[in-house]
Every structure is written in C-alpha cells, then in structure tokens.
Input
Amino acid sequence: MRTEFDTELEERLVRYAAIDSQSDEDSPGSPSTDIQLDMARLLVAELEEMGAEDVHLTDYGTVLATVPATAEGPVLGLLAHVDTAPAYNATGVKPVVHRNYNGGEIAFADAPELRLSPEISPYLGQKAGDDIITASGTTLLGADDKAGIAIIMTAARHLLANPSIPHGRIRIAFTPDEEIGRGVDARLPPDLGADYAYTFDGSKPGEIIYETFSADAALVTVTGVSAHPGWARDKLVNALHLASKIVQTLPQVTRTPETTDGRAGFLHLTEMRGNAAECELKLILRDFELDGLESHGALLRQVCEAVAATEPRARITCEIRPQYRNMRYWLEKDMTPVELAREACRAVGLDPKGEPIRGGTDGSRLTEMGVPTPNIFTGMQEIHGPLEWISVQDMGLATKVALELVQRAARAG
Output
C-alpha cells in the first residue's frame, strides 16, 4: 500500500543509513562511540528546521524535542535509537533502492555471490510491487533503527506542518547505544516527561509488542598460571584450555540461540578472547520468565565451578549483571498504551499482532523505570546482517499508525 509519505521516508532512510553510527560494547563512554553524535547532531538540526521545540542533545547522547500540543491529552513519547548493531560491518553503508520489486531474487552490487529471495526471507514474497531498500552487500543496512527515526521524523514534520491535527504534547527521543543494552540513561525518564511512550523498533506491519525477553549479561574470567612454554612442565596452567572446557561443558544442543525458538530461552557465547595467562568469555542470558533467566545463570555458575575444581591453581570468576526485564510485567497491569496502538493499527487497515519478541528494546528499560513503552513495527527484516531489507511502503504504514496513535491518545484523554 503506497502512502503520501513514501518519498520522504525513502529519502530519509537512505540518507540516515549512509551515516556510520555503530555502537561499541567495549567502550565505557556514553554514548559508546563519538560517531553516534554525528547522527544525533544531524537530527537536532533537522528538528530545529522543521519547527520542533525544546530541541537539544543531552550530555548522555540522547536527542530530545517537543511537538507542541494542539489538543488536551496525555504527554506521549516517540522513540527510536541512532546506533546500529556492532554484530556486523556498518562502515561505508551504500543503500540501494530496488524500485517496484519484481518478486524474485535481489542481487548485491558489492557482493555478487550474495542473494536475497523469498526462499531466504519468506515475507519478501509478499512485497512484489513495493520499493525495497537494501545495502550493497558488504554491510548491514541499519534500518534497525534508522527506519524508526525516519518514521518519527516524518510524522513529526507532518504534525508541525498541519497544526489542525488534534494531538497532545509529543516528546521525541532518539537514544544511543540501544544495541548494546545501554540506551536508557537513568536521567531519560524525567527528561522525557511522558505519561507513556512507544518505540518504533519492530518488524512486520501490525506488530504491537508488549512482551520481550528478560536479559542478563555474563562475564567469565579465567586466570591461569603463565610460564615459558619451554620450561612449562608442571607449572603452566593454560587459561585458554580451561575456557574451552567451559564452552564445551555448556549445552550445545539445547539452550542456545540456534537450537531454540518460541518461548524457550538461551545462553549465548558472544565473545572469547585472551591468551594462555588470562581469557574472558562474554555471554548473554535470555528468557521470558525470571525463573528461567535465573536457571541459565545458575547453570553457567555451576559449569564454571566444576571446571575450576579440576584445576585449583587457576582462578575462574563469573559475574552476571542485569540488562533489562520483560516489559509485560508492568504493561499487563495497565494495557491502555497497547490498546491504543492496536486501535491505531485497525484504523489504517492492519490486523494488530502481539507475539513476544526474542529480544529487547529501549522500551523494556523505560517500562521498568516507570514509563510504559510498547514497541511498534517499522517493517525492517533480516536485521544485523548483509541481507537486511525494508519496504518503503511498510514504513509508510508505520507512519500512518504513528499519526493515528497521537490523535487517539488525545481523544482518550
């Protein structure tokens, strides 16, 4: 379905995607990379140019702005994140528009061996006739979440240009570091000042997400005994060998991302680095239920203790820290924001869907911190890799939902 917003959305996403704004989990800064501020400063300038109020970049790297109210109603927040995932190359993104997609294979100019097709991405088979945007084959696209930014910016420009549309005060926030679980600074909820909010960071049209994983991160440090290998007999304790034992003892055919789906959680080794003297393992733990999350942590600790017992000269530590929690625990107490989003979807001809997502959003943290924040679709598909794609027309539907949503919120009062 084509919309009046398609041209603007395409132009915005192509422009935003070409800006490198990848986050870095190993950086202690906030934001974790300075390049995210390049994107943030561009958005500040564009928001000021379109007439938004209270536009500024916070010292924790979030862009904030206001669309003034034209009617009574709750203060509504609209959010997306500026960073792209560190899981794949995001430098030198060259967006490509495949206009009036023919329903077949999509080739990539910079990776001739790469193909995107409905066999690989079944939803693509429903998009014949749409305008599809991909990268050129050697990078991700970054529609996660620059599509969300394009949608919010397009909706904001439309509202500012059409003050006859009734809506309450709208607060816009573009956050850094969502992809590494650090997008919601403790200062954001009071700075946002919203009664409730929505992230635009979802997938297929009609998705209204109010249930996410609960998430912890784990750091296992293995400290061995270093010795010259020529004189190492009965002295050397190789940290890499012990780390490998931990990895091999952890589940291989269950409790991993590649062996689970639906509501099953997992432990996922994301990084292993070091040397014979010391080695670090980074893992993420995910589950929809807190007791399941706790069981993953207990299993990891048990494995570390068992391997440590085999070599008393080594030291193995396991630190587990919370990242975010399932937003359902709070939203199910008051489903008003979810119901309004569902009504907005129906108003533009979409059947709202609410299946749990096997991931998290800034909304997970915001909801936990007192700002109920469900997640709304953008259209992005096959994210975090070179086959990432999005339909411009799906983005248009998300923009229509955003505009319908702010009006319905005002009417609901």
The first strand starts at residue 53 and ends at 57. The chain has a mean pLDDT of 96.
